[in-house]
Structure to design on (718 residues):
């Protein structure tokens, strides 16, 4: 599915674990791996990276390394564009504080301005943990079909136990008229028909993708879009959440008048794959 | 200390009981014929008020609803609280991020749907002020501005219900209409508040500019920092206090505080309640269940009290002016359908869809009536204009659904090439705009 994977690598305490995760996804997608490091290329740093790769059993012959200097997020994004990276992997903190939320950390900047699919790894481990449950967001977003495809592919490749395909029930402006103008029975019928309609849409989304032999749970959730998806992923203890990238790059307004995805970016419930193409 | 006596308390309780019972009865009848509850509630008020009961038996009417005295004032206080709460739940329904996500298309529909009806609604009353019942020359501008605003407002709950009945609620067009109505709501109430401050009756201590500055400042503060602060406190309230009691009482406390603030700075209390509602409703920590409880409580107790009381204030027969009502209805229909329709068309929809969106946005519903009663109480309009506005609100709400359905039927026979036409129109407008300054030079 993805042919060229990039890994944004900073020399942090988790970098060894992130390399192990990168190796796992390289194998799962049968892709090539490019390590991207933004920082000074000193002998010491080169030796450190070589040792890291050795520890992670990454073949230095087949692993491309790009060293560049500059503003990390901006540089990483331009390298992804230049090198035609299909999927960028990076480590990220689960939560951001208020300052970082508005100003933006490197990981969040990459997510907000992504030029390709991005996977954020929140709890990387050197000893790879299996992927048991995946949550796929099936909202009508520009790359929802690609998100479904990625879910189906990973489901099979990683022998996932359960895939939750989630849509959100939105009630904009309806509460006011429904509460005063319907009986209890009508209200429940209205709700039921809305849920059924959404379930049909989930089924439509599943069509055309290979979910055979995979256990799929179609789930409709109500509440604040994005936030409820994040809460649901936490509740089921998902290992990976897959969402479609938005149509446009995010700016400050998307944080003030929160875009659905910003709820997820602000508090990553698990590893997150934002599918761009 | 003055307080209600035994007789006045009994009278007030009887009034409340009659208003709620009659409101429910008529709302149920309206429901049976697929009309919004507010239609039935207004009719209940007309039956109980000076229009029917007052004319048939003035003694009984005055005994049940004394025109003065402590119970009259107490009932009026209930109604004031009701209208504040109604605007609070109207605000709760506004979802800022969906407005932002719909982007340019929603902006087109809402801006055209706001500006065109506003301009038409302003021009006629300004140049034919006498016909529209404005005898006070000094209020001509404010009067015309108010009617312009009243033409541009849209009733979100009515539209949401219509879209759901037509199975269009989650369609692209449905979302466009919903988000455009939300933008209209915010801007409409903001403009109306500024107009109210222009009358200058509410606050003696502040200048017009101070009031406008404070209004805009309050709005911006509540929708950014205020909203953020609420988001931080709400999880604590949900976790530590009794649920939903804690959330219910503290959110209403905040609503009344916001309402008191805007009343204090010289604009109406309803604006503060609306903005608090928007800020609170936008929080991810207010669950659908909590919203539903707030809606149940306000929609079924305070809302009928307010709408039935409308009929008690005005004699709809004596103040019915056919030509005035016709003119207001015509301006309302033409302005909104043309404005919202054109906006939707430029936003990329077909002619039939644009017309449907125009009809949808034409529903004025309860919001128009609230706007009207506030203007009437502020002395901005007379009773004849108020009656015409109420009738317009009811007619637009009742016709919105059927007309939308009809225009969507045209969709199949719509064989034009809207995309090509729109591109042509846009290019033509762009050329004109870029050429005109050169000619001047």
């Amino acid at each position: 599915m993805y042919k060229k994977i990039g890994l944004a690598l900073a020399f942090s305490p988790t970098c060894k674990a992130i390399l192990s995760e990168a190796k796992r996804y390289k194998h799962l997608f049968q892709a090539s791996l490019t390590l991207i490091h933004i920082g000074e290329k000193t002998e010491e740093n080169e030796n450190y990276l070589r040792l890291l790769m050795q520890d992670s059993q990454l073949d230095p012959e087949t692993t491309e390394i790009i060293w560049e200097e500059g503003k990390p997020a901006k540089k990483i994004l331009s390298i992804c564009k230049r090198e035609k990276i299909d999927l960028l992997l990076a480590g990220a903190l689960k939560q951001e504080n208020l300052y970082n939320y508005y100003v933006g950390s490197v990981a969040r900047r990459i997510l907000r301005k992504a030029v390709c699919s991005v996977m954020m790894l929140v709890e990387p481990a050197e000893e790879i943990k299996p992927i048991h449950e995946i949550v796929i967001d099936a909202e009508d977003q520009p790359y929802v079909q690609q998100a479904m495809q990625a879910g189906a592919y990973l489901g099979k490749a990683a022998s996932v136990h359960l895939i939750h395909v989630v849509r959100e029930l939105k009630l904009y402006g309806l509460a006011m008229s429904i509460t005063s103008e319907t009986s209890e029975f009508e209200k429940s019928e209205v709700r039921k028909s809305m849920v059924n309609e959404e379930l049909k849409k989930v089924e439509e989304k599943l069509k055309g993708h290979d979910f055979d032999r995979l256990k799929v749970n179609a789930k409709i959730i109500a509440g604040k879009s994005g936030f409820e998806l994040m809460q649901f992923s936490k509740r089921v203890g998902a290992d990976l959440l897959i969402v479609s990238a938005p149509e446009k790059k995010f700016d400050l307004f998307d944080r003030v008048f929160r875009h659905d995805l910003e709820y997820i970016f602000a508090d990553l419930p698990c590893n997150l794959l934002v599918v761009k193409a | 200390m003055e307080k209600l006596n035994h007789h006045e308390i009994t009278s007030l309780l009887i009034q409340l009981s009659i208003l709620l019972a009659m409101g429910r009865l008529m709302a149920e009848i309206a429901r049976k014929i697929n009309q919004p509850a507010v239609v039935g509630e207004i009719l209940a008020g007309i039956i109980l008020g000076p229009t029917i009961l007052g004319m048939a038996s003035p003694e009984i009417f005055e005994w049940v609803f004394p025109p003065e005295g402590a119970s009259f004032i107490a009932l009026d206080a209930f109604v004031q609280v009701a209208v504040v709460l109604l605007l609070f739940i109207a605000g709760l329904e506004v979802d800022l991020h969906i407005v932002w996500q719909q982007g340019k298309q929603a902006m087109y529909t809402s801006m055209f749907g706001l500006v065109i009806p506003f301009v038409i609604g302003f021009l006629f009353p300004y140049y034919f002020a006498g016909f529209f019942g404005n005898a006070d020359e000094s209020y001509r501008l404010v009067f015309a501005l108010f009617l312009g605003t009243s033409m541009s407002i849209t009733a979100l709950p009515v539209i949401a219900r219509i879209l759901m009945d037509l199975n269009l609620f989650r369609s692209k067009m449905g979302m466009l209409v919903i988000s455009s109505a939300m933008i209209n709501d915010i801007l409409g109430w903001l403009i109306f508040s500024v107009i109210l401050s222009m009358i200058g009756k509410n606050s003696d201590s502040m200048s017009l500019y101070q009031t406008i500055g404070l209004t805009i400042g309050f709005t911006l503060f509540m929708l950014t920092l205020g909203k953020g602060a609420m988001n931080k406190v709400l999880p604590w309230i949900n976790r530590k206090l009794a649920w939903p009691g804690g959330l219910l009482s503290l959110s209403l406390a905040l609503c009344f505080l916001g309402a008191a603030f805007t009343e204090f700075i010289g604009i109406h209390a309803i604006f503060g309640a609306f903005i608090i509602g928007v800020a609170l409703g936008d929080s991810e920590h207010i669950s659908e269940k909590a919203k539903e409880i707030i809606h149940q409580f306000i929609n079924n107790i305070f809302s009928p009290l307010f709408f039935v009381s409308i009929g008690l204030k005005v004699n709809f027969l004596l103040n019915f002016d056919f030509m005035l009502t016709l003119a207001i209805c015509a301006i309302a229909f033409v302005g909104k359908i043309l404005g919202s329709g054109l906006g939707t068309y430029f936003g990329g929809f077909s002619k039939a869809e644009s017309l449907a969106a125009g009809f949808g946005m034409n529903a004025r519903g309860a919001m128009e009536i609230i706007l009207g009663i506030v203007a009437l109480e502020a002395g901005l309009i007379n009773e004849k204009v108020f009656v015409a506005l109420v009738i317009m609100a009811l007619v637009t709400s009742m016709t919105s659904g059927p007309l939308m359905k009809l225009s969507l039927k045209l969709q199949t026979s719509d064989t034009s090439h809207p995309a090509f036409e729109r591109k042509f129109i846009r290019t033509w407008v762009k050329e004109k705009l870029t050429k005109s300054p050169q000619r001047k030079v």
Summary: Strands of chain A lie at 4-8, 32-38, 63-68, 87-91, 117-121, 133-137, 162-169, 216-222, 240-244, 271-275. Residues 1-126 of chain A form a domain with the Rossmann fold fold (CATH 3.40.50.620). The mean pLDDT of chain A is 87. The first helix of chain A runs from residue 15 to 29.
